[in-house]
Inverse folding.
């Protein structure tokens, strides 16, 4: 019966606009995200779109916040489902998997534009903190008793590995090492479990 | 005496154009890099600029190649000057230092646009290979006898750490961990020497 899109209720227009924005983002990049184009894609007037988002930046932040919500859930689930002792690795694999599955959303979430607006946006701050806390909890669980400054340094290092791997994959850099052409998840698991040691280490210690 | 810029010889116009392009890049970003604007900034006609670069993409690749030349030299020097056993760490610190000192050039060098054009550009390919080889040689020196596939996986992991740390720093992400506001080099040294282990490790093992 329902072949035409149903009219939006007040409660789901915001989500419909964010869905339209995410489609545009992944298809055409962040520069294509004008409120007018999103409203058109969601079949509403742009006045209706402005009712939900003050401007393009507010929409980008809302999109990033929704991305962080899903991202935090994916990381937490990966950690919970992992075999004992492998939680931290599986969280890292889930990080790269998310980046590979939603490249434009991932770039938006971690881009400088959204980072600058995070301080004034409670929903965005809370969502990105949830993702960060999965990482911090993972460090604390893997090294109980570590002082908080060391936890943060170690979390930064672990974050850097998975964030860098995601970026190198998305930007097609790993081809230079003869890697990066296969399944991103398998590659991430191989590289992350192969030892992320940057310091001098004896063979096999990684 | 020489208060006016000297006329360019055939031999240095290319460098002068690249200097102008790099100034524009760091000031206004890659999107501002039109050949016409660069020619204006270098005080030459745009016909002269087209004599050296077929199009904007060729100029971006040449700029990236020059960046990779300096980058490879900086990494190699850092490795050579490092105290015994710390070469790999110092190469990593030099990586982040370069990114922090030349953020727009760094983004250009590792961006998808330049990566796509690398295959058909011998100068760019050779320059980026030199940088990559510093990394690969570092892995081989730190773990003699390692098979080549493991060398490449380990190099990818080490690359990911320093690349990710650079990106998180440039995009203002580390503030979420209470890090990132101080000197980038000191921060890189702290984080990289604090253990980049992603796998479960006992306290203090990093």
């Amino acid at each position: 019966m329902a072949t035409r899109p149903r009219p939006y209720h007040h409660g789901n227009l915001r989500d419909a606009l964010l869905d339209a924005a995410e489609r545009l983002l992944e298809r055409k990049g962040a520069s294509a995200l004008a409120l007018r184009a999103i409203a058109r894609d969601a079949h509403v007037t742009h006045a209706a779109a402005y009712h939900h988002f003050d401007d393009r930046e507010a929409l980008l932040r809302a999109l990033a916040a929704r991305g962080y919500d899903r991202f935090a859930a994916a990381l937490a689930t990966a950690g919970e489902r992992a075999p004992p002792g492998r939680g931290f690795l599986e969280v890292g694999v889930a990080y790269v998997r998310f980046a590979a599955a939603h490249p434009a959303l991932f770039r938006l979430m971690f881009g400088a534009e959204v980072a600058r607006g995070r301080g004034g946006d409670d929903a965005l701050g809370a969502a990105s903190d949830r993702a960060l806390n999965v990482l911090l909890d993972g460090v604390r669980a893997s090294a109980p008793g570590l002082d908080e400054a060391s936890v943060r340094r170690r979390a930064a290092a672990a974050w850097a590995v998975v964030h860098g791997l995601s970026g190198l994959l998305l930007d097609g850099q790993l081809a230079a090492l003869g890697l990066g052409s296969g399944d991103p998840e398998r590659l991430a698991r191989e590289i992350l479990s192969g030892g992320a040691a940057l310091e001098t280490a004896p063979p096999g210690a990684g």
